[in-house]
Every structure is written in structure tokens, then in C-alpha cells.
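Problem: given the chain below (159 residues), write out its structure.
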Amino acid sequence: IGTHETRALVDVPEGTPTASHANGGVKEHLRRVVLPSLPKCVQSSFEKALDDGKIRSMPNSWLPPSTQQVPGMVLLGDAMNMRHPLTGGGMTVAFNDVLMLRDLLSPEQVINLGDTERVKRQMRTFHWRRKNLTSVINILAQALYSLFAANGSPSPLPL
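Solution.
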């Protein structure tokens, strides 16, 4: 971000009692639960960001892909299939989607993009072919999230 700026990603799972509306919402959860757990050297900056309203909330969830059937519209990357943003996998998927669609909708495959039925057939092919990459990225994103979201006290790993 910069020499004098830091960005923090704080996960607040849905249904967290300390982040409920009755308890002041996410902002108060950050103040009461997260702030005390941060290193002393960043606590005042974190609290100032809370007070100044410099908090950005981004809900996330998993959204499975569905076969696209709307004529004239194509969704790629996270717009088609959302995964946890921790890995940045949506961009990787989007780039792969572009390459795959380039081939599936090429003039050799679809002579006229106005041929809705042919485009729909190619989009069905696209839906199933992209699963080879997206399933791996989705599994890795969820596994990494699960690792970072582990609760309880850490136990040492045997050597």
C-alpha cells in the first residue's frame, strides 16, 4: 500500500455473536475483539481508522457456476463463479476464461455470433471445460480460508 499505510483483512464469519447488530455490528466487533489482539504498535492507527470510518466491508461467499443462457451476455471469473477472495483466484479464472472463450467463440467455431443456438452450445461446453481449473482453485481457496480461519489455540506440530 505504501510506506506509512497498511491494509488488514479481517474475517468476521456470518453469525458471529460479537458482530451482531445488537452488539454494535462489525465495527464494534473490530473494536472489542480484534483491536485488543493486534500488536500495540498498530492499535492506535487501527482505532483511528475505526473512528474515522475508514473501514470497508466486503461480504464474501461461494457461488457455484451455472450454465449461461442469456443471449448477448457472458460472465467471466468471479462474476460467474465466486470464491473466497483470500487467494485472488478470480483473476486467474477470468484470464483462463478469456483464453477458453477465445477458442470456443472463434470464427472457426462460431461463424456468426448472432447464431444464438450455436453460441449457447459453445457456452455449455465452456461451462463444463472450465471446471478443470476452477474446481482446483475453488478447493485451494476454501482450504486456505479454512486454515486461516481456524479457531482455538494453536498446538505445536510434532517434529
